[in-house]
């Protein structure tokens, strides 16, 4: 009987040890957001998990819808564990539901980004502010399909910022002269390259950090300064365009890495790492330049950076 007790205890100890190992080896599912900065961060996260942390991670191809990523993090079943580039306040509804509300999603400390409307600098003598866009002659310069309205690129269909810019143009009284183009980022970048080569009119939303600012000479269009009540948006309502107003410059965005709190039990070292990951906008921009402008493989960029910056990485994983 005593021998059997020892055998059972040993089996329980082995089982417990196996459970701990399984927990720390749980594969981490990283979202596949479409913009270059998010992709760069995702590959760096994967490189840290698979390198210094000695665990497993995968970037889930096609997992590019932020709402689906957030719902997966909330479920905690390993279908989606990391939202690599959560822009606030663009994603306020997700924050309210899962971070402040359900408290199933954690995050790190943010880095800062900007969101503005741009033209190539060869057009800066004609357009300096949103007020200039009220001129029908200016709008006609951007009318590509001959319907009497100028086009601007508002963003990708899945981005909340795409709705934000439509609200802004409505709030500035520009809806009669302008209409949004809603296209994938890669499609727009091809259009931008062609337009700049030919010095054609093109107007578009963009943000920092991003490599287009290094590739092209761009000028931001001035917007009115922020005042109390100038921004009142609910981009998740069914009638979001009618219900929202936004007639001033955007605040600097706070950009987070968000993760499923289920990792705190499924893979505690990874959860700790993600909560402590502190990104420098200049470093992120360096990754973006190599991947977006120089066309280097994002995995190679990430692994090389991690190998050369273990002093930073060790602060994230300590």
From TrEMBL:
Keywords: Signal. It holds the Pfam family OpuAC. Transmembrane segments: none annotated. The keyword Cell inner membrane does not apply. SUPFAM superfamilies: Periplasmic binding protein-like II (SSF53850). GO terms for cellular component: ATP-binding cassette (ABC) transporter complex. Residues 1-22 form the signal peptide. This is Glycine betaine/L-proline ABC transporter, periplasmic binding protein, putative. It comes from Roseovarius nubinhibens (strain ATCC BAA-591 / DSM 15170 / ISM).
């Amino acid at each position: 009987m005593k021998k059997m007790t020892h055998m059972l205890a040993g089996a329980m100890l082995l089982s417990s040890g196996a459970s701990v190992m399984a927990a720390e080896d749980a594969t981490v599912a990283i979202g596949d957001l479409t913009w270059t900065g998010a992709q760069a961060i995702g590959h760096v996260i994967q490189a840290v998990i698979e390198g210094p942390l000695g665990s497993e991670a995968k970037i889930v191809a096609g997992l590019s819808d932020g709402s689906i990523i957030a719902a997966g993090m909330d479920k905690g079943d390993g279908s989606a564990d990391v939202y690599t580039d959560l822009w606030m306040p663009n994603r306020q509804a997700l924050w309210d539901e899962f971070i402040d509300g359900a408290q199933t999603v954690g995050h790190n400390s943010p880095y800062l980004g900007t969101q503005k409307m741009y033209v190539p600098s060869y057009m800066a003598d004609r357009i300096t502010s949103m007020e200039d866009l009220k001129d029908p002659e200016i709008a006609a310069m951007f009318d590509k399909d001959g319907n009497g309205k100028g086009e601007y690129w508002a963003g990708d269909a899945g981005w909340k910022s795409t709705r934000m810019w439509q609200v802004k143009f409505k709030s500035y009284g520009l809806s009669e002269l302008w209409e949004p183009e809603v296209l994938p980022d890669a499609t727009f970048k091809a259009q931008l390259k062609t337009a700049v080569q030919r010095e054609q009119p093109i107007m578009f939303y963009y943000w920092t950090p991003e490599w287009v600012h290094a590739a092209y000479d761009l000028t931001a269009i001035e917007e009115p300064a922020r005042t109390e009540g100038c921004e009142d948006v609910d981009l998740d309502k069914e009638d979001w365009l009618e219900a929202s107003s936004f007639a001033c410059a955007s605040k600097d965005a706070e950009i987070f890495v968000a993760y499923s709190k289920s990792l705190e039990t499924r893979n505690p070292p990874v959860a700790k790492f993600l909560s402590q990951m502190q990104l420098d906008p200049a470093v992120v921009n360096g990754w973006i330049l190599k991947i977006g402008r120089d066309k280097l493989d994002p995995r190679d960029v990430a692994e090389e950076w991690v190998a050369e910056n273990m002093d930073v990485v060790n602060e994230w994983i300590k």
